[in-house]
Amino acid sequence: MASEVEFDVWTTTLFNKFLAAPANKVLDWVGVQHDPAHPWSNWMTMEIFVVAVIVVVFAILKGRLSVDRPGKMQHIFELFLGFFREQANDNVGHGSSKYVPFFGTLFLFILFMNLIGLVPGFESPTMNPAVPLGLAVCTFLYYNFQGLREQGVGKYLAHFLGPIWWMAPLMVPIEIISHLARPMSLTIRLYANMYAGEQVTMAFLTLTFLVIPVAFLGLHLFVAFLQAFIFMVLAMVYVGAAVSHEEH
């Protein structure tokens, strides 16, 4: 769990001890001021750790896949896949299956990062605004790319003009501002909810005994799933609007 006082989780300590040199070179190259003895932050190392965990989980899952005798792990992820497909079909519509890998990856990555903070000695990377911002920018670039690829430049940009041509001078700035605000909205929503949930849970863990902390841990678990779901659904909505072939 995170606390008010900044501390290094064990992954950050290892990275700063053995991989400080390459991190310093990258940070110097991009012009970011930093402590040469402490270039790695918790959110960086925890995000890398979560990626490693996901890779291991799916490597294990791949080795256990079976058509005749699927195991519990396979059943769980088949439920996830069915859920992703259903949500994509509801929010994107026809042809949504080709976007499911992105939506599923987004959901599971955010979920794992949200849940890792429940493990003692770890910290949720999503409590740092840089992580939600990175995910939001990726989503922004993804849905715009898919819109341009699906409809072409002319038809996609026509969505910014509004339903009537003479409304274009008003609609274009509104649409541009609306699209640029989406990464900010996604970032603030995920970051604020995860940070607030973590602080509330930590406060009750330090003030009370067993029963109430367990209740708040359950609430934190619910928030972790909910925020991953909301982020994924909003990404679906943005993709659905971008690839829609409605005439204006």
Radius of gyration: 21 Å
Judged by helices, strands and strand pairing, the structural class is mainly alpha
- What is the percent of helical residues? over 70%
Which regions contain 5 or more consecutive residues with pLDDT less than 50?
A: 1-5
Q: How many domains is the backbone divided into?
A: 1
Strand content: under 5%
Distance between the termini: 50 Å
Secondary-structure topology with pairs:
Layout: H1 10-18, H2 20-30, H3 42-64, H4 72-91, H5 100-115, H6 130-158, H7 168-207, H8 211-243
Helix pairs in contact: 3-5, 5-8, 6-7, 6-8, 7-8
Write structural notes for this entry:
This protein is mainly alpha-helical. The protein has one domain (10-243). Helix content is 73%, strand content 0%. It has helices at 10-18, 20-30, 42-64, 72-91, 100-115, 130-158, 168-207, 211-243. The termini are far apart.
Brief write-up:
The protein is mainly α and 248 residues long. The chain is 73% helix and 0% strand.
Summary tags:
248 residues, mainly alpha, 8 helices, 73% helix, globular
